[in-house]
Design goal:
The structure is a single chain. Helices cover 32% and strands 17% of the residues. By secondary structure, the protein is of the alpha+beta class. The protein has a 7-stranded antiparallel beta sheet with strand order 3-22-21-17-16-11-10. Strands 9-6-5-13-12-4-23 form a 7-stranded antiparallel beta sheet. Strand 1 (10-14) and strand 2 form a beta hairpin. The longest helix is centred in the middle third of the chain and has 21 residues, at 297-317. Bound molecules: glycine.
Amino acid sequence: MKYSYIFIALFVLFSSCKEERIVGVTSNKAMVVSARVEASKIGLQMLEKGGNAFDAMVATELALAVAYPYSGNLGGGGFMVYRKNDGSIGALDYREKAPLAATTDMFLDENGDVIKGKSTKTPLSVGVPGTIAGIFEVYNKFGTLPFKDIIQPSIDLAKRGVIVTQKQDKRIKKYKPSFWEANKDSTLFHQVWNEGDTIKYQALAETLTRIRDNGRDEFYKGKTAEIFVDFMQSNGGIITLQDLEKYEAKWRDPVTFTYDDLKVISMAPPSSGGVCLAQIMNAIEPFDLHTYKPNSTKAMQVMVEAERRAYADRSYFLGDPDFVSIPIKELIDKEYAKERMASFSFNKATTSKDINPGTIEVVESDETTHYSIVDQFGNAVSVTTTLNGAYGSKIYVSDLGFFLNNEMDDFSSKPGVPNMFGLVGAEANKIEPEKRMLSSMTPTIVEKNGKLWMIVGTPGGSTIITSVLQTILNVHEFGMGMQESVNQPRFHHQWLPDEIRIEPNKFDEKTLKELEALGYKLNTKRTPIIGKVDAILVLPDGSYEGGADPRGDDTAVGF
Ligand code: GLY
């Protein structure tokens, strides 16, 4: 076998320590971990041909648009964080934007109340897509292989078709009523698809072929743009050719901070991911978490209280940095974190009403997808990309072969409402023409003692930040391997609602009872799955261990 892609998240029994340890796929030189085996393999093919992590990024992103229409996309957007083998770092923002005709109150009725569903499942919910601009930005800056060689495997895959997995079978059936609701016509996804069937994406193959031949402009100015805008306008959407022509992906400085001997490199606004992760990790750092057991009462208390305080700041301060001024330096200051944690006691839960500033409950969709790549030259990329909801708005442009995002829902539809402390919040993330909506996506790369150590990220809406946190801490504080860390049960607190979301049936009952006795409200029903983390760890001998989340069809491949 040419490369050691192995679906087996191996359960290896280390007889010497009599301890069962979970070990993921390992490789010596390069690795790709993504939500579908087809996409991971196409990404790895680029590396086998001598391409770099950026070539693999473009190929994986496109392959996910074919193999994983649930979140992979041409009709959405995302963020990439990179670290090159010379230690230089950077970040790309290819987040969707509000159309020029968007208005702050576009999702409100005449009484100023939010109209349910308008920002999630109508053509108005669609932001101007950024994915194609993003991949061309990456390719033009760092790509080495001919572009046609990078895109061709995805064209071939779309023509050949993708086999429906058991999990996909369930998802398509679950969302079928929503496909009917969103699309006036029947689409490819209205057919009956069962596990083992092959879905061929002919229209998508044609769109990708035009992009291969005509480049970036095909999507933003060419035939694809015209079909897209015609579709939007005949269905009541507001995206115009001018919106597409004006779209630009933007290079941003990543958010960086230290935690013990780690340096964490994560996404800057318009994602809240990096800032929020920094705030939480700064608050946890003084507690020497390794002195507690993983997922023990005390470890969970420290993490939950740090999360509560960071999320209270999130919705008040964060938004698109091109529109609002964000005090990033102050928010990620270690002294500020200490001040915020001063009110924490192990004897009793803090209540969220005693924590300000803050404004509104973070309501975000749980869907998105993440992939991690390291190449044979030591370059690393961490990418999270999304349509927002599962299959985005569920609106499918049959002539182009892809779903449209409903990212406009990530704006605050009703800003300016004073909170219980009289603070006016969510202004930073109000809808404005050409603005990017706030995200939680947290593509992250971690260095240890100045060297590449981990590449990590996940879907999960507002739970993204806390899943990335737990994945890093499981390895750094509790000595787990990559796959073992990814497999761990997860929990999440986001200030409001004042509850800990817990993956059901996975935590120690005694710990949960202790938390309740301390005043924590637990919710095991809201989020049966928290995150689908895809990560890579550099092992002490320089080889790689993949962590592909068994909660999905995620797969690590390497050589
Ligand atoms: N739409 C999910 C996020 O951007 O966080």
